[in-house]
Amino acid sequence: MSHRGKRLRVLRDPFVVAAPAGARIRTRLQVTAAEAAVLRQVGEHLGGLAGKDLAVRCADGNSDAQVKAYSRRFRKQELTAGSSSRWAGAITRTSEDSYQLRMRNLKAEVQSLQTRVKVITERLARPAGGEDDQGRPGYADQAERFAKQQRLQVLSARLAACEATLGSGRLSVCRGGWRLAHSRHHLDDADLTAEQWQEQWRAQRLFLCADGEADKAWGNETIRWNPNTLSLEIKLPAPLAHLANSRFGRFTLAAPVDFPYRRAEAAAQAAGGAVRYDITYNPAKKRWYLDASWKTDPSAPLTLEQVQYGPVVAVDVNVGHLAVAALTSDGQPITAPFTIALELAGLPATARDARIRRAISQILRVAADHRCGAVVIEDLNFEESRIQGREQQDNRPRRGRKGRTFRRSIAGIPTGQFRDRLVQMATNANITVVAVDPAYTSRWGAQHWLPTLKAQFHNQLSGHHAAAVVIGRRGLDQRAKRKGERVTDPHQRMKRATPPHGVARVGELRNPLGGPSRTVAPGLIKATAVQGQRTRKDSRRPSRDGSKTEKPNRQTSTKATQDRSGPPTIADPLSRRV
Q1: Per-residue pLDDT tens over the stretch 98-122
Q2: The predicted structure's pLDDT at residue 129
Q3: 363, HSE (Cβ side, Cα atoms, 13 Å)
Q4: Could you tell me where the beta strands, DSSP code E, fall in 359-495?
Q5: What angle do CA 7, 13, 16 make, to 5 degrees?
Q6: Residue 202: helix, strand or coil by DSSP?
Q7: Residue 543 pLDDT
Q8: For residues 279 and 29, what is the distance between their CA atoms, to the nearest angstrom?
């Protein structure tokens, strides 16, 4: 496979993906019929106030900061009479968040329409079935050109309407979701009855959200969870104070409330910080849930320099499956790469999320088995392809069955969802996530690693597994080429002779918390390459004159197990889990 004559773009440096800035956990509420009726009545009352406030916020438009602050203060004062000051603050904050989200979506739609109109306009200027002076082709025939002219008119009209809405700043936001509202007219396609849709619509428009306060008891004054007594209290709005069953207008649930997952973290946060609580209802399961969320430290477990001195797990994300490979610190596969099935097409959001979680759990289990401190993934971003749609300008298929298959493939790769969920779960497992440039991973994997992997393990391995190896080596700051193809320059080997700060030497595991070091088991240490080792070329041979035996012929050879020399020290990623 030769690609001479083509200029390859410069690869971006790998980077550590930022850890989540917050945490969110959920538990089920065991409520009676009377308690459920009170929760629904409070949610509907606050939901009505939230809908009115959102309508006023959308009518105000996109104003400056001073006018926006004055508007929110005025709206909060009006809402306080029908609820409380804290409920009103949560409602106005939610209205602002909804408005800003809709504004971002509208800007993205305008950008996509502008790109499509530009591409079609430029191509319509070229002759049909021919090329312009610079060799750029036009449309294939007059029929396709006419269809694109009609499409240009539709896109231009949509662009004009979106730009007018964006300029005025008066947006339209649907509480409950546009998708659910649209399904009201297509109940058969949504597999819902009118009663089921009405129940879902009411559940989506409930408002039971309370922002946390660090200086209040247990981090929240409106919805308060006590980790000692396992009680949940809700401060009722003023018009519904007669429903209270506790002092100071509070409603307390009879059953204990506890979080089965990360309970200690939630209790510690409630004792010394702010915690936000959300109460939601699932009409399909007839269940009430409590969500607790708070801010966390977004620092990653390991730095990029520390990651490159330990084993890693590399993942190649594809349509319907993941290719996974575990690599040593010198870029060699530890075991045979394998495939994790990830079929997401046609599944609801909850099922897709569950399958992504299951796949990530398998990846993290492999990382724990091989003592890997990081998971390396590609920094995939199909934003440009999604923006251009059918009007993309590259050489990928865009028309007919191939074009539809390509766009369906792009939409089926869970790049953003997989990456966000992986970072969340890996951070909880004290594992770092590293993103690398995705360019040429499949090409170079098939060129340099696929034959070797098949010969070393089995013939069922594909180019996706070879691409995973290249992804892992790129995260370790190594080239895609295998050993023997190129040896790193001497000055680069000297640069890596000294380990970074916090990395233990061979046979030693350093405690990052400042404690005493301990000895590492010999099986956990990977021997590094020996440069300049003298080896015997051949045995003694007779002299040219036959009188005596000459000294053995020795030659100096350079041995390397990789394309660059490995460091004389190694970092055990589990040293940070003290």
Answers
A1: 999 999 999 999 998 998 999 899 9
A2: 87
A3: 37
A4: 374-378, 432-436
A5: 150
A6: helix
A7: 45
A8: 9
Please give the Cα distance from 206 to 41 (Å, whole number).
9
405-409, long-range: CB < 8 A, 24+ apart: 409/319
Report how far residue 415's alpha carbon sits from residue 87's, in angstroms, rounded to the nearest whole number. 37
CATH 3.30.420.140 assigned to domain 15-19+300-475? The reply is yes
Q: What is the dihedral sign for C-alpha 26, 27, 33, 36? A: negative
Nearest to 433 by CA among 576, 301, 578: 301
Q: Give the C-alpha separation, 554 to 536, whole Å.
A: 5
Instruction: Tell me if residue 305 falls in helix, strand or coil.
Output: helix
Which residue in the block uniquely carries the two structure tokens 């591409």? 119
Is residue 274 a contact partner of residue 262, using CB atoms and an 8 Å limit? no
Q: Which residues of 296-382 form beta strands (DSSP E)? A: 312-317, 320-327, 338-342, 374-378
Can you say whether residue 307 is alpha, beta or left, with left for phi > 0 and alpha for psi between -120 and 50 degrees? alpha
Q: Which residue has the tokens 């350093």?
A: 510
Q: Report the amino acid identity of residue 116.
A: R
Residue type (1 letter), 313 = V
Residue with tokens 């790769």: 413
> Which position has the token pair 């396609």?
189
Q: Are strands 432-436 and 374-378 parallel, antiparallel or unpaired?
A: parallel
- Tokens 């020290």 -> residue: 569
> 426, 578, 434, 569: which is closest to 501 by C-alpha?
569
Domain ranges for the chain, please list them. 15-19+300-475, 24-295
Radius of gyration of the chain (CA): 31
Beta-strand relationship, 312-317 and 320-327: antiparallel
b/e map 384-403, b = 16+ CB within 10 Å: ebebbbebbeeeeebeeeee
Spatial separation of the C-alpha atoms in residues 130 and 138, rounded to whole Å? 6
Residues of the chain with pLDDT under 50: 1-3, 486-498, 502-578
Structure tokens at 325: 């490979």
Angle between helices 33-60 and 85-124 (to 10 degrees): 50
